[in-house]
Amino acid sequence: MKNKAKLYAEDVRKVLIIGGGGREHAMGKKIHDQNPSIELFFAPGNAGTAMLGQNIRQRTIGELRQFCLSREIDFTIVGPEQELVQGITDDFLANDLAIFGPHKAAAALEGSKVFAKEFMHKHGVKTAAYHTFRHYVDAKRFLENNHTYPLVIKADGLAAGKGVIIVHDSFEAQNAVKDLMRNEKFGEAGSQIVIEEFLKGYEVSVLSIYNGHEIAPMISAKDHKKIGERETGLNTGGMGVVAPNPLFSEKDMQAFVKDILQPTQQGLLQDNLQFSGIIFFGLMVTSFGIYLLEYNVRMGDPETQAVLPLMQSNFLHQLIAAYNGEALDLQFSQQHSCCVVLASGGYPGSYQTGFEIRGISQVQSQVIMAGVSGSEGHYKTAGGRVLSIVSVADSLATARQKAYEDAAKIRFDYAYYRKDIGVV
Ligand code: AMP
Ligand code: GLY
């Protein structure tokens, strides 16, 4: 790869954010609030990002590259994983376009669970015991000799968050493996699988910024992934987040740094996988210590909505520093945030859209949009996760109370939200 030219923050005037969810609205809002003169573009964006800048039509990597070259975009930030796994960073850097996010080889830390587990194992990153399989017969034979359940079966590739199956007996296990490897339920993503030990504990998300040699962690967050209260029902993209995670102590943070962050940092260097981008650690805290479940190479959604409002450092300037390989300085307020996601009734199954959204102007908290179409005064639902309400306060209890007071002001047909976000 060519040597990149240093990017000076004061020269950055036009920024493109790729993606169109709540995460991208939250990143755009933070950048806009901290740097009001920056011109923002979003591909494709949503009704929320349209208030901060311009939503553009370009979709493919080639179209996005052309847009950035012709419109002289100074810096591109990639929200979702797909473009990273496809190699947008390699393409942009080869064309002298400044972009924040890992190149294709490093994006495999998220794009391939086999690659990620082998990386963790090789570098002593604490993770669940596992086996990988490339052939159906080998996985089947392994299960015939296994008598310990539950087990976790994972498709290797990206499967829209649905490629992880927890199985409780050999019947379920054999079916899951057959679905993935024989019936190709997730296509090519299931051609290899990981079978791993089930870990019992609670989950914590830690986002971080990587500058190519140092990983700087942000405050921890607690995602609520299930549709139902008390973590029941189907998995979703995330129904709410609080930050910092009230269960994750300073001591836990230190154990995470020692057992997971540092070996990752050394491993990236050793394997020549340096990049500038986000590393999102999906952790499981157990009575035997803290384990890494997965790496993501992009910000979490909705973790971003809850974490960024607490960031005191200039977010865009930190991303530019990381791009330049310069030292990072991430400062956070001592406050707490609570993000409650309002969804369309039926989500994560089928749901209807096109319902009028009322009450947004009465809300004091931040309103971060995801599945919303239209413009001020004429907003309509357009997705499963519609919008989120984000409140910040000196205590978690007050942040929760404010978020729920405001959530109750928003009205659309069949609106649904969990009432227990942040309940410990
Ligand atoms: P992943 O995509 O690997 O993070 O897995 C998605 C979800 O599956 C995680 O957020 C956990 O809720 C669950 N999960 C993954 N691996 C394990 C494991 N080894 N033990 C228990 N739960 C797991
Ligand atoms: N909230 C989990 C994720 O972004 O993957």
What attributes characterize this protein structure?
424 residues, nine-stranded antiparallel beta sheet, binds adenosine monophosphate, five-stranded parallel beta sheet, alpha+beta, binds glycine
Description:
This protein has 12 helices and 22 strands. The protein has 424 residues and is of the alpha+beta class. The strands form 5 sheets. Strands 10, 11, 14, 15, 16, 17, 18, 21 and 22 form a 9-stranded antiparallel sheet that branches. A 5-stranded parallel sheet has the order 3-2-1-4-5. Strands 6-9-7-8 form a 4-stranded antiparallel sheet, sandwiched between helices. The protein binds adenosine monophosphate (AMP) and glycine (GLY). Glycine binds next to loops.
